[in-house]
Amino acid sequence: MSVAFEIEIVPTGTVGAEMRGVDLASMSEAQVEAIKGAWYRHDVLVFRNQEMTDDDLLAFSRHFGTLDPPPNQGAGRKSPPGYPDIYVVSNVLDEKGEPIGALGDGDAAWHTDMSYAAKPPDASML
Question: Which residues contact 68 (CB under 8 A, 6 or more apart)?
Fold first, then answer.
């Protein structure tokens, strides 16, 4: 375990690490750089118990580069009103039995995001 700017980086095994002690909705540039360093080293990062608005999620995501628009899948492109760069993934059904997310209720199996693209994105955030 290492500590950088009060962030704990806890490896989860061969791949991945859990990041503790950071609020993704209000980070310093030093914390952003520490997160990037952990990502480059561990490939997969987990941030538990974060409370973020849609604007917070977009601001955090943009620290890592330009965002690609979400694909059109299963139930169509589902985004919160006014946030076309956010893609809703959920297994929740609404009161009519329709999926609130773009992939429906258990419709997606293991896959890689946008691996078909000539220049696929460096990362996906869930």
Answer: 114, 121
